[in-house]
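Hey team,

Filing this mostly as a record. A colleague (T.K.) asked me to run one chain through the structure pipeline before their review meeting, and I want the input and output archived in the tracker in case anyone asks later how it was produced. No errors, nothing strange. Just documentation.

Input sequence:
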Amino acid sequence: MAHELETWSDGTASFVSAREHAWHRLGTVLPAEFDAAQAMQYARLGGWNVRTMALQTAPVLSDDGVFGALPVPDQFATVRTNPVSGSVDVLGVVGRGYTVIQNEEHADLLNRVVDESGGAHFETAGSLRGGRSVFLSMKLPRIMNIGGIDPVDLYLSRSIRTTGPARFGCWCRRCGWCAPTRRPWRCAALSPHSRSGTPPARRATSRRPARRWA
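Output structure:
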């Protein structure tokens, strides 16, 4: 599957992980767990200054022959400052009720989880789809036993979308690397997240009933 990680003009990818490569060997690998400040630095999530700007149409010709742009009511473009080039990037279109959440605020909440849990630590952080989605994940100190015999690590992931609907999400997964793409079963089958060294078995049956052929 496509990695969907944001790549920059200098050839680097907006992704950081702890101890080992996760997706397509892209991004930065740190030798140990990292904190929110390092996530902002190495995944290039800091200093975006996400903001909204009023939308206008392209210039149009009026009845008296004057060109001008028309305002688009209740619609705004979300933009950011590109952390590499310094230019302004358009991320998406949102309505009047959208509230901007900066990446630094995003990470600060998970930092508080680290402080309160006494064992959680950051595992991954990055940007997807040209900055339209930002994610951070951390490994929790607790585990889940599959079938009562196979301990599996648990991860807490948090994401922000800068394009309107579902702009914020927080969920618990048994897989940390693929949580941003919401494909935990595929990644769990391919990556050794099980502490026993054996990946958790992939679901053998589909959620949809099998099609019967005549």
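Quick notes for T.K.: The radius of gyration is 21 Å. Helices lie at 36-42, 103-117, 184-190.
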